[in-house]
Protein 1
Amino acid sequence: MFGRAIHAIARISDEFWFDPVEKGLALRSVNSSRSAYAYVFFSSMFFQHYCWTAVSDPCHKEKELSLPCKLIVKAVLPVFRCANVLGRNVEKCSISTSPSDHHITFQLLCKHGVVKTYNLTFQECDPLQAVFAKHMCPNILKVHSRLLADVMIHFPTSQEEITLSVTPVKVCFKSYTEEDTDFSRTMVTEIHLSPEEFDYFQVGVDSEVTFCLKELRGLLAFSEATGVPVSIHFDRCGKPIAFSIEDVLLEASLILATLCEAQKEADSQERCCPQQWGSSETHPDKPSGDEPNSTDISKHPQRDGNAPTNPVAKQEVKSIPRVTGRDVTGRAGTATAEAAGEATEAPYQKFHSLFFGAVSYKEKDATGHTFQSLATASDTEEDLGPLQSSPVL
Amino acid sequence: MAGHAEGRQCLAKRLASTFPGKGERKGGVINTISKLTKTCTLRLTVCKLYFILSDKVANGGASMWCELCQGNFFDEFQMEGVAAEHNEIYLELVPENLSRALKTAHSAKAVKIKLTNKHCPCLRVAVELPSLSSSSRIVTHDIPVGVIPRRIWNDFREPTMPDFDVSIYLPVLKIMKSVVERMKNLSNFIVIEANLSGEMNLKIETDLVSVTTHFKDLGNPPWASEDGCQSSAQGRNLESMAEARIDIKKLQQLLAGQQVNPTKALCNIVSKRIVHFILLHEDVSLQYFIPALA
């Protein structure tokens, strides 16, 4: 299971954050263009034995310091290479870190007394975390991963992006082709499903979102292995879409940026930056459900400084072919940019990406309430309370 | 552009066919063809479908003619060609696309194929799949096709049976396939030789190694001699081998595409000229010509 999670994350990027915290182990990954974010959290119950000790570091004033670190996926993948074989041969897997010499040790205790030990170095680094309020999404679908897998099988493995379009009476996945592709050469596939096929179906706003299929396949494979149903939270185009699974032992989410058609020019396409959903959590009085149509960003002055950012964002973005120029983009200059450690980059002409907040325990005053919870919709209660101490967002 | 206009005309007349339950057989044929070539021509007539690959240089000179009776695959088949006296449609398509579209056809409730013209001519394959809910899942694939104008229909005529030297049944394809696959690693060319006593050898020869696999008791198909056209085979010494050296990859592709054992599989060899393979399944006949190389 752990191996499969690593495989799923491997689809996103070459490195990932390995972040043990008191409650469990979190793995996070972001792709190079910051348009996809994967998060897998194994609660301590998932492990037979989970021991997390706070390292008190004299340099830092915090009482507790967890040890987020960054690993190269390619180094870790071989450890869990054949997930199927692993299941049969490996009796126990133990993971231990030694911060002093920057090593993580994976030890696989296999059958017949074979012990494989892998020592990997890591880089200490603050992980990023996508800020995305799932409970704010007007559209929520919940379905068993088998259905999604059956749907995705119709698309070729080379298919980069697909479009999901929903109305209250139907759901449609179709292959996405750029405007300038040669239609006489490309095959287009469309799958129509009825809402009844979903375990939970809520469509607040008719929408059509386009996202990267390749990155999703990793999560789908993982969720099929866990058997937990997949929840899909999304909104109008341009806003990110989140695929997540949640269970007692683990949770995982994949947040993908979506394409949106520019309102001004019919031709240009841009990925709009999803606004800071996180900040909305500081306004608990804000009704979540009943403004499905006002997801248009400019109408939300409460989201600090987001209103002015919308036109700004659109001005800066030009139409570009999507597959080229996947630069790392940060969040273009908004009110939040100065606060977020990661995102103070100059506005880019290319598409924007998800907004990320640095999960930096060092900067936080409130240590107990970590940013982890922002990425999941589960524990909203905790968020709304003491989050006044999160100046970042 | 008279030819083109005619091509467009026939698009307006639809071809609609549905075939529940037979999808997997058609899928099998398409699969085989998709392994042989990247693009091919589909010829539709009132009673038959033909997949044709003509022997252009681009294909390495290999050509293919695959014929199936629409009645065996479709429950409903409507077609209107260009004009009454030429009631046929010729389309150029990528068989891999069609193969992919039909991938799930075996579990489908119904499959419909239509020729439409949206931005460009397309074969629209609509697969109705069973689902957990009351309404089925519908998957549509739009496969772009090219309409071939009538003036070049002559390029796609049925190839004539060559005047062969030896005709012999092929060994069990699975065995032949694994032999050829291993030989492929050693050499780019393979020599097929056979005689009228039911013996066939597959040979490769390189600087370092030569390998020969012998097959016996294969049997030779009895071709009725009509007006002496098989005379080259008639008076032939039963033991003498006819041979041809061909591109091993082409042979491997042909064998790789065979999922099901054909009812009849044979090949005709014209010494040093061409090898003509004929594979017959219940409702499909596939002919594949591989030219011999020097």
Note: Chain A touches chain B through 17 residues (CB under 8 Å).
Protein 2
Amino acid sequence: MAKIQTSPFAHLSQESLPTFAGVKMISLDNPMTQYGLNATKAFAGSWFSNFWSSLHVYFDVTNTYVIKKLQLITVPYIFRGEWQQELNTDGLPGSPKYNQHAPDLYIPLMSFITFILLSGLKSGFSGNFSPQILGITASSSIIFLCFELLIVYGGLYFLQCLMPSILELIAYCGYKFVPCVAIAFCSILLGGAIYWPVFLYFSVCFAIFLSKSFKRYTAHNSFAYEVESVDVTKQSFLYVVGILQIAIIFFLGYY
Amino acid sequence: MFAKNSPFEDYNISELEDDPPLMEELGINPDHIKQKTISILAFKHVDERLLEDPDMAGPFLYVLIFGGLLLLAGKVHFGAIYGFGMMGSIGIFTVLNLMSQSREIDLYRTVSILGYALLPIVILSAIGVFMRFSNPVGMFLVILSVCWSTYTATSFFETLLELKEQRWLISYPIGLLYACFTLLAIF
């Protein structure tokens, strides 16, 4: 006679499981239930749920945060002095709700979508709209972003700076869609002649914003000893980053 | 069981009498649908109890009426409405779940709320059977209906998800979604 084994779900009773309008959906008699419950337990520690919860921090934004951040991106010269960030216990930037200078992913995502829609609108006004244009703009923007992420990440790594996490870097580099949206919006409203002054203004402001934000990473050294003098290479890397942004905003608006 | 009592009866009648009425079995509650419609049209605050009971019948009805009105205006866009609506709903569902810190929402409820808030755009398409929207009055009506839909959907989501300081942040993607919907349908 086979040994009677205790069910792994002995603490569950049929009444405690959820039902759908009175019909029991999870039946303890079914051997597939064990498979399903194991799968959900495996999901809880999986890479997807970890990714989701780390993504959650970057979306914790409020109205005032977004307004101040947009001000920082479009008129950064108003905010003088060092841009202090409060850090968490594990060295990551704090939640955007409490910290003005922390990166977030809401603004890059929304400005990316707005940029694609505005490009479609612009091409619609000049007469050659097709649904393919939206897809082409989206994929070319993402390729430019990846290319720039590689350069910036590689530069920070080889210069032995404090390394940001990938999501932070995506957030900072994704902020460039805000000036792209502003430039596209101005050129739709005010006509094509206004393009160059507007482009120069917004891209230079964004280059200033990003260089000042990256100062947080280049100011540190990843070695243990303190370095007294300011490293010229790291300073010029900040300039390179700034000029790179201007070039990329130009190429993004070119189509 | 379903036995015939005589050659002239198809089924035993007493078995059929035990079934619940058809509408209740399908989950369609016309009273709820009517209450939600009136609260959207009259800007009344929706009872949370109504929001807790999501149903797809109201939105389905609205989408069918929308498609029918567009058909009357000469545009056949059923596939585009369906595809774009699903993609937009999944996008909004993702953004809402990422932004809300204390509560969660499921996809069914998101699609239900977005479908109910489509009502002003259905009214716009009803007007669109009779007039073109290229003149300033038309543009004003388009903008008004998009704002109305966005306001309705935002207030529903705010009630469900307890997002107090993020009101404009959720109204922006919802506004983009409804603006694209309107562009798709009207032009």
Note: The mean pLDDT of chain A is 79.
